[in-house]
Every structure is written in structure tokens, then in C-alpha cells.
Design brief:
This protein folds into two domains: 5-16 and 157-415, TolB, C-terminal domain (Neuraminidase, 6 Propeller); 31-149, TolB, N-terminal domain (Rossmann fold). The chain contains three helices and 31 strands. It has helices at 51-62, 82-87, 133-149; strands at 5-6, 23-27, 34-40, 65-73, 92-100, 106-114, 119-128, 158-165, 170-177, 184-189, 193-198, 204-209, 216-221, 227-231, 237-242, 248-253, 260-265, 272-273, 281-286, 292-297, 304-309, 315-317, 325-330, 336-343, 346-353, 359-364, 366-371, 377-384, 387-394, 400-404, 409-415. The strands form seven sheets. The chain has a five-stranded antiparallel sheet, with no helix packed on it. Helix 1 crosses helix 3 (133-149). The longest helix has 17 residues, at 133-149. It is globular, with a radius of gyration of 23 Å. InterPro entries: 6-blade_b-propeller_TolB-like, Tol-Pal_TolB, TolB_N, WD40. It holds the Pfam family TolB_N. It comes from Massilia horti. Part of the Tol-Pal system, which plays a role in outer membrane invagination during cell division and is important for maintaining outer membrane integrity.
């Protein structure tokens, strides 16, 4: 009899056989867009991916740039008429080239030019293997974003999510580029998979599988394909969340009665209880300081969000508006709380400035939020057209994207960390 659970993995950070690519739809743009001209890279047709097209799509998807097609290939060595480009409306110009090297790698070179100050803002030159040309294009887009916005870009990051087909009993934990390309299967099962959570180093994902006919927390190594059990206590084991240093996970366990928050070593050792109430305490999330946990509790009568020291002690209530607030997520800088609130019969994504308490309603019909590593965007699951798909909204609510696929329901997103 075949085992119910099987794994698909690659030894090179999931650069294996790709599945169907997600499609990105953009709705809405940010205010005060920066006009940037992106030229075709000289000789880029020799590469398997059109580098300039990927850069252009990344910048457009961010919502903060007005991308101008330069309509001509321009090498990074070319002499530039800054005045002409400024007159065309471009404040910045992206140029470059691609060269196939004797060893089969591709030399990708680029420059970012300031047409106003008539100066070079940045440059990059790297030789990459064929399969990494797309990643190199994302890195260039990240550099453009950082030099013009002052914040690190997230185009070269990855996302994990669950792709489920309940009728076929097919559940997949998939990993893709932030633009939905390069989809690869990390784990596949005919029992549900939920709650993926990226390790801070980007090489592992914790998740919950029902293959043992109960929820059990696993950690999957994306490089080796190996996995280990982190929490398989009596009752339910759920909601893993990595500590910022990657040495521990916060989990929700019902081993001693109602579900409570625990902390366990990343290797499954040193289990320690954090909350101690007669209510349900679940969905723990580490704050970036590594000392604080946010979590959902019904100790006040209905689900609300609280915070407390990861060492234990008294908890402080954080949400007060509405009678149903769940799924806390903390921004990478620790200043913003995102969560799901049920108000007026609808589940909506909210963000709160933790210093002022000011709330902003970002999206309706939302579940399972996840911050981008630069804190500028939030990915979440949403239903539409009879299917569940992923969507992205900027923290100011102005930029919105939707990631869809032709088959299955995609949900439970987790945005991966910056890769070194």
C-alpha cells in the first residue's frame, strides 16, 4: 500500500520542475509615482529570459513607479543624452546588456542613471547560470527600488502557500517567486496542509500536516528535502511561528486541555508553556524584538489579539474595536499590526499603527495575512469567482494585486525573508 504522504524536493533551493505559473493582476497605483525609463538590454535575446521585461514588470507591479518603455536597446556603455531623457518625462533610466560567456554563464550588467542630476546612481555586474537569469533581473529591480525609494525591494524574495484540490484530495505546499513565477512543490499530500511559516534564513518552512489524521507541526528543509517533526503532542499541534533568530518556534497545542501557546526549539526540544488560562490561546506570532509574542485569545469572551513576553507573565490586550479579531501579524520593524477583523458580517484586513492605535481598513474578504520582508506590502488569501486566490495590498491601501491560477485554490500565504 502506498504511503499517503510523499515529498518532492530539489537540492538547489527548489529550482526543479516548475508547476503552472501564477498570474498577477494589478489594480490601483501609488501616489506620486516616480517616472523611470527601462531600456531593452543590449543582446539580451541570448539569455533564456528577457531581463528588461522582468525588471519592467517588477517596477510596474510595485505601484510606485510610472514605467516608460525606452523602445530601444541601450548598453550600459552607451553615451547618454540626459537632457533628451529628462524631456521625455523620465527621472531615471535603466540600461544594460547581457553577454553569453564561454563557460555557459550569462554576464548581466546594468546601470541606473539619474536624468535630473545627470549622474550614475548605481550599477551591477554579475555572471549567473542560465537558470538564475530571472533571479538576477529581480535583483536589479530590487536595486532600482532601493536607490529610488530608499527601502529594500522584495522582487527577489519568494512566497510559500498551499494549493489545494479537495475533490482530488491533492494538497501541495508550493514555493514561488514573489511575482508568481517559478512555482515548485515542496511538500505534497492527500491530507490537508496548513499554516506555512518561513524560517528567517529562507531555507526552511514550518507547516502543519494532517497526514497522521491529526494536526502535527513539521519543518521542511527546502535545500535537502528532509523534514522533521517539531510538535506531535497529544491533541492538536498547530500555528507554528519562527523566532527572529531561527532557534525556536511558537506553537499552539491542546496537549493539556484548551489550546495554549508554547515555545519549542527548532529541533523539537525544550517544549515550554507560555500562556496559562482556561480559554483558547492560539495563532502566536513573534515580534521582531524576539522577546514578545502576539496571539489570539478568547479570554475576554470573544477572539481578540493580545501580546505578552515570550517568557510568560501577564498579557496586554491590543485590539478593542469589533468583537472578532484574529490572525495577528507584525511588520518587520515592529511598528504595525495586521490582522483580520469581522465587522458588519465581513472579514476584512486591517492594519494598526501600534504607537498611535490608528487603524486602516485595507481589504475586504480577506484571511491569512503575511507581511513582505520590507514591511511595505501584505499578502492575504481572498475568495472570488468560486475560488480562493492570493492578493497583495500596500500598507497604505493604494496598490493592489491579485495572484491567480487556473486550477485549485491557493491560500495560506507566507512571504519569505530577504535572501542573502
Amino acid at each position: 500500500m502506498k504511503k499517503l504522504h510523499y515529498l518532492l524536493f530539489s537540492a538547489s533551493l527548489l529550482m526543479g520542475t516548475a508547476q503552472a505559473q501564477l498570474r498577477v493582476e494589478i489594480a490601483g497605483v501609488g501616489s506620486n509615482q516616480i517616472p523611470v525609463a527601462v531600456a531593452a538590454f543590449a543582446d539580451e535575446s541570448v539569455a533564456p529570459e528577457q531581463v528588461s521585461a522582468i525588471i519592467r514588470a517588477d517596477l510596474e507591479r510595485s505601484g510606485v513607479f510610472k514605467v516608460i518603455d525606452a523602445r530601444q536597446p541601450i548598453s550600459e556603455k552607451a553615451s547618454i543624452d540626459y537632457g533628451a531623457w529628462k524631456s521625455s518625462g523620465a527621472d531615471a533610466l535603466v540600461i544594460g546588456s547581457v553577454e553569453r560567456m564561454a563557460d555557459g554563464r550569462f554576464a548581466v550588467r546594468y546601470k541606473l542613471l539619474d536624468t535630473v542630476k545627470q549622474s550614475e546612481l548605481s550599477s551591477m555586474s554579475d555572471a549567473v547560470q542560465s537558470k538564475y537569469t530571472r533571479l538576477q533581473a529581480h535583483r536589479i529591480a530590487d536595486d532600482v527600488y532601493e536607490k529610488l525609494i530608499g527601502v529594500r525591494g522584495v522582487f527577489a524574495t519568494r512566497v510559500a502557500y498551499v494549493n489545494e484540490n479537495r475533490a482530488a484530495r491533492d494538497y501541495r505546499l508550493e514555493v514561488a517567486d514573489a511575482d508568481g513565477a517559478g512555482v515548485n512543490v515542496a511538500v505534497r499530500s492527500n491530507e490537508p496542509i496548513i499554516s506555512p511559516s518561513w524560517a528567517p534564513d529562507g531555507t526552511k518552512v514550518a507547516y502543519v500536516s494532517f497526514e497522521q489524521k491529526k494536526p502535527v507541526v513539521y519543518v521542511q528543509d527546502l535545500i535537502t528535502g528532509q523534514r522533521r517533526v517539531v510538535a506531535n503532542q497529544k491533541g492538536n499541534n498547530s500555528a507554528p511561528s519562527w523566532s527572529p533568530d531561527g532557534t525556536k518556534l511558537a506553537v499552539a497545542l491542546s496537549k493539556d486541555g484548551p489550546t495554549q501557546v508554547y515555545v519549542v526549539g527548532a529541533d523539537g526540544s525544550g517544549l515550554r508553556r507560555v500562556t496559562n488560562t482556561f480559554g483558547i490561546e492560539t495563532e502566536p506570532q513573534w515580534a521582531p524584538d524576539g522577546q514578545t509574542l502576539y496571539f489570539t485569545s478568547d479570554r475576554s469572551g470573544g477572539p481578540q489579539i493580545y501580546k505578552m513576553s515570550a517568557a510568560g507573565g501577564n498579557a496586554t490586550r491590543v485590539t478593542f474595536t469589533g468583537s472578532y479579531n484574529i490572525s495577528p501579524r507584525i511588520s518587520p520593524d515592529g511598528k504595525t499590526l495586521a490582522w483580520i477583523s469581522q465587522r458588519d458580517g465581513n472579514f476584512s484586513l486591517y492594519a494598526m499603527d501600534l504607537a498611535s492605535g490608528q487603524e486602516l481598513r485595507l481589504a475586504d474578504g480577506a484571511t491569512e495575512p503575511s507581511f513582505s520582508p520590507n514591511g511595505k506590502y501584505i499578502m492575504y488569501a481572498t475568495k472570488g469567482g468560486g475560488r480562493t486566490s492570493l492578493a497583495v495590498v500596500s500598507v497604505d491601501g493604494r496598490v493592489k494585486q491579485r495572484l491567480t491560477t487556473q486550477a485549485g485554490n491557493i491560500r495560506e500565504p507566507s512571504w519569505g525573508p530577504f535572501m542573502k
